[in-house]
């Protein structure tokens, strides 16, 4: 097999902590999120990252929720390292959380780690029972 000698990294191991069982939002480990220095703090840029591979579990029905997640932020001194963001979002896979709570958890964790000028998180969940749910949260530093 091609991956016989593959070593699982510590960050990947943390992200898989919630595999196989159902967990609560409090079990998502924000220490998965790593940052890198933003070398141009005087220049306000907008960073946008999108994934359509986000999943979590509806605590009411136990069915999976799928979403297109868009994270847009204006960095102050830190950027989120993208591989760590991927594993952080992956860690929601077996986590029970209402769509609105999931979006709030994501924005709160990213705000704590990045301390950005502003950040927006938008989750467009797929249609369930004929209803599409789009949830967004914003933070703007004072």
Describe the structure.
The mean pLDDT is 93. The protein has three helices and eight strands. It is α+β, with helices and mostly antiparallel strands and 142 residues long. It has a single domain, classed as 2-Layer Sandwich (GTP Cyclohydrolase I, domain 2). The strands form three sheets. The protein has a four-stranded antiparallel beta sheet with strand order 3-4-7-8, covered by helices on one side. The chain has helices at residues 10-15, 82-90, 99-114; strands at residues 23-24, 35-37, 47-57, 64-74, 78-80, 95-96, 118-128, 131-140. It is globular, with a radius of gyration of 16 Å.
What's the SSE blueprint?
Blueprint: H1 10-15, E1 23-24, E2 35-37, E3 47-57, E4 64-74, E5 78-80, H2 82-90, E6 95-96, H3 99-114, E7 118-128, E8 131-140
Parallel strand pairs: 1-6
Antiparallel strand pairs: 2-5, 3-4, 4-7, 7-8
List the defining traits of the structure above.
22% helix; 3 helices; alpha+beta; 142 residues; GTP Cyclohydrolase I, domain 2; two-stranded parallel sheet
Oligomer: single chain
The CATH class label is Alpha Beta
> Which regions have little confidence, pLDDT < 50, spanning 5+ residues?
none
Instruction: Name the structural class.
Output: alpha+beta
Q: Measure the end-to-end span.
A: 53 Å
> CATH H level: which superfamily?
GTP cyclohydrolase I, C-terminal domain/NADPH-dependent 7-cyano-7-deazaguanine reductase, N-terminal domain
- Give the CA-based shape: globular
Largest sheet: 4 strands, antiparallel
CATH topology: GTP Cyclohydrolase I, domain 2
How many DSSP H or I helices? 3
CATH architecture: 2-Layer Sandwich
- In percent terms, what proportion of residues is strand? 35-45%
